[in-house]
Structure formats: C-alpha cells, structure tokens
Design brief:
By secondary structure, this protein is α+β, with helices and mostly antiparallel strands. The chain is built from eight helices and 25 strands.
Amino acid sequence: MRVGAATYPIVLPADFLPTEGFTKQIDELHARVLAMENESRLALMAVEVTSLPPEEIEALKAIVCKASGAEKAFICVTHTFSAPHFMPDHQLDDAGKAKKAELRKAVQLAAQQAARDAAQAMRRARLTVGEAMCTVNTPRDVETPMGWWIDHNGKGPVDHRLTTLGFTDEKNVRIATLLHYPIQSSVLDGSQLREGGKAVSGDLAGWLASEVEKQTNAPALFLVGAAGDQAPREKAVGFVAEEKELHRTDRQDEAIEAGRLLAQEMAQAAFQAIAGERQIKADPLTFTETKVVVPAKKMERDLHKLHPTRIAPYEADGESVQPVSLLTIGETRWIGVRPELNCVTAQGITAEDPLSRVITLFDGGAKYMADALSYDRITYEAMNSPFGQGAAERLAKAAKTLLTNGFDVRRENVE
C-alpha cells in the first residue's frame, strides 16, 4: 500500500467574525487528508467543523478526489461544537449567505490543498495498530427529578478505548495516524467567554490532533466513534436541577484550560497506544456499502423546546433509509454511519471483531440514533432524533452482517 497525508488550516477571512455568536478564534481549524492506494486510490478527510449538509459533502468529495487523484473520497467531521455552521439558506439573510460563502471557500481551499499535498507525499507504507485506555469520556445521560437530561459523569455504558492506526514508511518515518475515540468534541459547547461571545476552536479533537502531530511530525486524523451518549469528563456548561427546574452554569474561560488538559490526557493515551502498536497486513483496501430501512419519527426542530420529561413525545413518521459502509484498511475494518450512535450500539456491532471500529458522522450527519433503553428513558438523544425506537438495533444488525459477509452485499472493490 502507498500512503500520503497532509494537514492544512481553514483560514477564515479577517472580518469573518462575529457570526452565529462566535466572536473570537482561539486556535486554528484544520482539514486533514489521508490518501491510500492499492492499485486504485481512496482518500479520507477529517475536517474540523460541527457538521456538513449533503451538498457540501458532495462538493468536498469532488474536490478531494480531483486534487488527490482518488477514485473515491470519504468526508468525516470532527464534530467540534465551536465552529461556524453551514446553515440552510432559508434561515439566512443576505449577510448570512455571504458569510456562508466565505466559510465554504475557506473549507474547500483547505480540503483542496491538503488533498494535493497528501497525493504528492505518497510512498510505500506499513500499517500498525494500537490501543490504550483513556478515561476522558464519560456517559452523559443523567437522571433529574423531571426526567433524563444531558450532563457528564452520568450512569451508563462507556467505551474508554482510544485506537490508533499508524502508517510508517520503509525508513520507519511516520506518515500519518488515525485516531479513533468515542467522544463529542464539546468542552466549549455553548460557553460564553467572559468578554462576551463564543470561541471558535477545534476543541478536544483539534487539540488532540495537533498535539499528536507535534510529537509524531505527521498528520493525525480524528475519527468520531459512537459518542451520542458520551461526553468529556469536564465541560464549560452544566446543569443543576433544583425544585424541578434546570439551572445552567458556565465555567467560561476557565474551561478552555481544563479542555486543553483533557486533550493532553488524550494525547498521552494516544502516545501509549502508538508505543504499543503492532504491525498488521497492509492489504486489502476495500470499500463496501449497503442500505438499511429503519423506523422514523418526527423531531422537534427547535431544540430550545426540548426538556427533561417522563412523557414520551414520540410520533411515528414512516421509515428512513440509511447507508452503512465498511472501509477495510489492511486487517482493520471501519463501519461508517451517518447517525450519532450510542456507545452500547457500537459495542454490539464490534464485540466479535477486535479490529473493527464504528465511525459516526461518516459522509454526512443524520442526528442521533439512540438505543432502545434511551427511548424508554426518554433521553435527549432519543428526543432529538429523526429515528424511531428499534432503528439502532436494525442498523447494528446490518453492520454486523457487513462485517461477517461484506463481500456478499453490493460491493465496490478498490484493491
């Protein structure tokens, strides 16, 4: 296998801020591209934004393919909550549409340059895989007197595995690292700076990737695991339940340093995983995709109306078709899905395959897809979802079938 990788900053115009309440940029956002080739070429991009709508995904795929020479590209967001959004045009005035165009230009330029640089850096590589325990993530579902709500250090399953997939050349020089961990990059989510406004930042994923890059002198791409119900151990914004009401708290600027310390802890786990990596076969390189029909439900679009409740607000809304992908890189297998799955769902998918992992927000986003217990508890993930109870279990079954019989379903072979 031949591999190349590159990191390029997303440079926002000097007068881009303020927008969406963001008033200050405290660190760079990045686009990172990994190009892999085994006869045919694939490209994987990790971009430090919260989410991307389908039209932006397709545009970026085309740009990355053209710039890298790849036949197929995959786009993954790091899901930092501290980045400007690609809002729908109908929600924007003329000034907002102009800002959106500037954001698009900055992201696409970074993607193009990273893809071009990755292609130019390609060389023969060997693969290594490592794993370490990292306790930065915690269950985020917390029961209050009114019902279940979001916080951190809650009760529920948690997956502390931080996985690294390393690419090194024949001289043992690091080419790139894939970092996989089930956590939302949300330390600063919704927090206000003391001086006012919100900070633009790569948050945990960005801080972690940059630290690993410093130490390895190679691009590091962060891939979001099943983090729907996982949260950082420390966050800026929290909630205190008093007299059947939720009171919001905000650590403001103090949380920036706390988040950076968490990222350092994640980086130490990554270095431990890298130090213990074992070599695996570099072949094959394949991509397989299937589709699964799952139950859908109506979703409240105004998130401010969501609140802890004991009365299930679920209303069925037909069915939804969701793609499930399998990207095989050497002996490792990566299940890619658009919805944000809960930890227990991914554990069920990968339990019998130690070299498989689930990537969420893969080639798009589809909001939360919670497990059955979350629907029974009426958690935030269940309420803020376009999917009905049982959807996660159907998707998990399809994913396990892909892992077991991947070549028996519709297949695109890029060996």
